[in-house]
Structure prediction request, 379 residues.
Amino acid sequence: MSTGSSCAASATGYRRDTLWDVVASNDWADQDCYKRLLRGGARTADLTAPPRASLLRKGAKGGCSAFIASGTSTADGMPVMGHNTWAGYQYSFQNNVLYYVHPTHGYAFSFQSSGGQIWSGEDWYENSAGVLLTETTLADTGYKPQGLPVFVRAREAAQYASTVQQCVDILRTHSNGAYSNEWLMGDSTGTIASLQLGTKQYDLNVTRNGFFGSSNFDWGPNTRSEEGDIADPYKPAVVDYARYLRWGQLAAQYNGTIDAAVGRTMESDTYDSYLGEQHADARSLCGEPERDTPGLLRWDDWVYEPCGALDAKVTTEAMALDGLQQWARWGHPSGDAFSAAAFLRKHPSWSKDNGSFELFGLRTFARQTPNDWTLVGGL
Prediction:
């Protein structure tokens, strides 16, 4: 990584970025956690005390819908993985980049991100050893300042791991706990796993025959215990749990037939399991919170922001081993269009509460999307 080839604007002209500028720009996912977990600032904060639930609740925005399947669940008995990213549309117009990296050491790998990043903020990796890796975010419960941030551990797993167990070891070792996730992973032996990784606690489930669906729902007993009263409730109307239930329905419906095509169908799913009908909204796996979500609980207040599923990716073990291939779609996985103009008419206060950059980003995302599913890779 070069530290002298980039320049940043300043009041007097331009200056060269330093190594720490690059580090800070890649550590954006942890920084929001630091603001909430380091009460009083890093110098005075009590890092041993659990943060107040009210502080953590402020960071509950966002989400993702992901799955991994293998063995008797898939058409060829080998891993199939899919993921769609949920984030603010106004900031995401720049994240439609797929990187293909051929390092001097380790395995060739692919990841989705934006310019200047060495890891995937959109939670998507595959490497030439056949490792598949994705995640959805869980609640933050603590922070260990001596630990490694997520962007370091995720990059190391993508570049150096060749098995599920190696992924688990890299992600767990010296974790700083500031950006908790449920990691889904698979490898060329047909093994898949779900690793729910908190600060001090974790839940690991490994199989060669099965399906893991992930939707920001903390279903592991150890991670739920660590989260305490901020853990997602088992209420079918709640966004995360409703999607978790839908993954179970789809796993049963497509058992034994899951391939890349079925994966695209599942990531595009607009069924609301609480309503029991097709209804693209905040509770569908293809999250479209800008649409009305009947019966929404106060727990899910964040959905009144322009934030939801803005992309989708699907790959298989065979595709990863054949040139890091993947199916990708920019915009709502369902193909539904997002209208910035309609959102701003419905929520006029949003434009008053946000600046010109956010308005530009929202309108740019609307212009960029939707797109067709596209097969990329083969490099």
